[in-house]
Specification:
By secondary structure, the protein is α/β, with parallel strands linked by helices. It has helices spanning about 35, 40-45, 70-85, 100-110, 130-140, 145-150, 160-165, 170-175, 205-215, 230-235, 235-265, 275-285, 290-305, 310-325, 330-345, 350-365, 375-390; strands at about 5, 10-15, 20-25, 50-55, 90-95, 115-120, 195-200, 220-225. The protein has 2 domains: about 5-260, Alpha/Beta hydrolase fold, catalytic domain (Rossmann fold); about 275-390, Serine Threonine Protein Phosphatase 5, Tetratricopeptide repeat. The longest helix has 28 residues, at about 235-265.
Length: about 400
């Protein structure tokens, strides 16, 4: 099972299927297998690359007991860290309950990384003190009490019950006591430009707030489910999935249309399919043909830039630099790593930028240049980027 690392906290994730990337994030007490058990994975994996994530404090992810470790920026940063670990520049997002709240946080703190948002059972307004207190009191009684509460609302398999009981009540309580856990995220709504699907059960206590928030999002669809409460909606995958699949088909078609429009702007003389060239470069790289891979990555980088895909343009330049390094052309490698770092940092991809800078430093070591102004300046820059990432919790 792979893990991403966000400032020392390990985030467990799993990937299933192929196609456009889609992040799935469950709510409080949830776990990534939940999406498999409820039928979402089997229904979506044929068309989408599903990225299932355990929230910090849940499942196989680390479970700190310090409320400071659960600030919204850190929770959003966990999702970004997983995308970075997979080398994915953009994805669709599906989050329910607390997972939906993190979806609003991602729309605020990392909007460039998402093509669409599907948010269920969660309003962006301030979380009620009464509701938070209710959960804290329930968690004080232990996971047996939490499990018994869920069993009154939905039918649970023995496996679901076992995983729910395995939760760390102290970690879950720490999440609820985070300094900004109850903070409103309503300010982000007018700035969301990505397509959104917002859904909720009409018997959910948040129904009115969820329905109201749709008015302030530019491109949002709203779906409600009569008679269903908070837990019942997401458990009724047969009712929810048709709306999700239809929305994703339209959102994916919209993305492809934009990409095609961008490609049509390229001149016929220089037109190259960047995705195919990128894949060809990766295949050559994996087979050890670094010289041929280098040429493919450089072509892909130029083609991505022409269609305005600056992340993949920078990433394939980074891969070209890796090829130069493996071919022991260290001087060329350091120049390409630094160019890739500049592009990544300019666009806010700080983790990738930091990686490129550290590789450039390795090139200096390979060249026997561990002293001098350039090396000193590079080390200083690495330290500055690290400090920036720590301060932003990404």
């Amino acid at each position: 099972m792979p893990y991403a690392n966000n400032q020392g906290v390990r985030i467990r994730y799993e990937v299933e299927g192929s196609g456009s990337p889609l992040v799935l994030l469950s709510g409080l007490t949830g776990y990534l297998e939940w999406w498999q058990e409820l039928g979402y994975v089997d229904s979506l994996k044929d068309k989408y690359k599903l990225i299932l994530i355990d929230l910090r404090g849940h499942g196989g992810s680390d479970k700190p007991h310090d409320p400071e470790a659960y600030r919204l920026k850190l929770l959003a940063g966990d999702v970004v860290a997983v995308l970075d670990d997979l080398g994915i520049s953009k994805a669709h997002f599906l989050g329910y309950s607390m997972g939906g709240r993190i979806g609003f946080a991602l729309a605020k703190y990392a909007p460039a990384r998402f093509q669409s948002f599907i948010i269920g059972g969660q309003e962006p307004g301030e979380v009620s003190q009464e509701g938070t207190r209710w959960w804290l009191q329930l968690l004080e009684k232990g996971m047996d009490a939490v499990t018994a509460m869920f069993e009154t609302e939905i039918s649970m398999t023995p496996e679901m019950k076992t995983r729910l009981l395995a939760n760390d009540a102290k970690a879950l309580s720490a999440m609820l006591m985070a300094p900004d856990y109850r903070a409103s995220l309503e300010d982000v709504l007018p700035s969301i430009t990505a397509p959104c699907l917002i859904f909720v059960g009409e018997a959910d206590s948040d129904f009115a707030g969820v329905k109201e928030c749709v008015k302030y999002i530019r491109s949002a669809e709203f779906v409600s489910f009569p008679g269903l409460n908070h837990t019942q909606v997401i458990s009724d995958s047969h009712s929810v999935l048709p709306h999700i699949t239809k929305f994703l088909e339209n959102a994916t078609r919209s993305v492809h249309a934009k990409n095609s429009a961008g490609e049509n702007e390229m001149s016929q003389a220089t037109k190259v399919d960047p995705i195919k060239t990128h894949r060809d470069g990766t295949a050559l790289y994996d087979s050890g043909n670094y010289k041929e891979a280098l040429d493919k990555f450089l072509q892909a980088s130029q083609s991505y830039r022409k269609v305005g895909d600056f992340f993949d343009s920078s990433y394939t330049l980074f891969k070209a630099a890796e090829c130069s390094f493996l071919l022991k052309d260290y001087q060329t490698a350091v120049e390409r790593f630094l160019e890739a770092a500049d592009k990544m940092l300019e666009r806010g991809y700080d983790r990738f930028g930091l990686g490129a800078l550290e590789y450039a430093n390795d090139c200096h070591k390979a060249l026997g240049k561990e002293k001098g102004k350039k090396v000193t300046d590079l080390k200083k820059r690495i330290a500055e980027v690290k400090k920036k990432i720590e301060s932003q919790a990404f």
